[in-house]
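Reviewers of the previous submission asked for a worked example of the structure-prediction workflow described in the proposal, so we include one complete record here. The input consisted solely of the amino acid sequence. No template or homolog information was supplied to the procedure at any stage.
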Amino acid sequence: MPLTRRGLLRALGAATALATTGAAARPPARPAAANAPGAAPAPRTLRLPPPTGPWPVGTVDLHLVDGARPDPLVPARPFRELMAGVWYPADPGGTYPTAPWLPPAAAADWDAHSAPALGIPTGAVDWRGIRTHARTGAPVARAAGQLPVVLFSSGDGGTRALGTTLVEELASRGYVVVALDSTYEADQVEFPGGRVERALPLPDELTPEVIAALLALHARARLADAGFVLGRLDALAHGRNPDAGRRPLPAGLPEALDLSRTGAFGQSLGGSVAAQLAHDDPRVRAAAGLDGEFVGPVAHTGVGTPFLLMASGTKTLGTEPSWASFWAASTGWRRALRLRNAAHGSYTDLQVLLPQLTGGPQVPAAELIGTIDPRRSLAAQRTAVTAFFDLHLRRRPTPFFAHPGDRYPEVEVLG
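From that input alone, the workflow returned the following structure tokens.
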């Protein structure tokens, strides 16, 4: 396969936007209605599984501008501009529209650029029509009290939307989750008004040295982004609206934030950034990484805070050099789990979306989302991530980590 952006990220083991079909345990999506002879098939409809927690979910987007630093990826821009999605337990009732998986302009860009790189023809899927289970702007559930806060970051090149199934799950279980996009690195980031900023082109020569330098640059940019966002969340908790356009915020959001209980997690490069953030910033009390190598100093310093590592394929703490050094240097509570028959892209929403294309567009085989049952994969991930943050941000004891295989035979303990 040519080294497109996704081909590069696949080679790195650092992609989020790379899952494919191949986990055939999910039944095919319902066929589209018959079309006139010679007409293109109607776009397929894909659905996200609902979260399983007791709370309805609300969401709001924040447009954040850091005027104190030039953009680290486009230095000619004198400020850093970000988009973040905030997800939280919502009051039931009210007529608030469900949020899309991708906003309209980003969905069109995904259809034109990201989907074809997965082997899905433009127009084959109604990406704009994928809905989340969160209601835009719904009031925060005051009955939930003050809530722990968790930052989420996708893999290199990936949109924050790719973590929606895990983000919604945490929100439905009583967390405020802030999902970050990395402008000019993520395939597409949509800003208010429908403006889309695309990822910068990759260099023509993708030597190991160039790849390492790119990952290090992206990790540093994300780390600074996360620190800035934590500062904006502190301002929000004190009643100030951090949105650049001062768009209205959901009722009750400032009062809901308990920043003394802050965690971070991410897929692939996002997990490495979460680890580095936990090492560098005392505000972050626990972190989790979903199947990515560690990039930068944290690979050798480890962390003193609790850390959950989830792996795929045949990876072990011994086969991945950055995992071995990170694990040996870490001094806090830690656990490493592996999902049997999963692959790197299993830790993204595409684990459950793309198997619905069985019988439709032919995307690459199971090398990216494995042969694990998508429903079992997602259920195990949701259980593990929620149990981890419940244990370390809420001090709720759990038997899950002692014997995870009792509930999920797909889960193996690596360390």
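The first helix runs from residue 5 to 12. We consider this example representative of the routine output the project will generate in years two and three.
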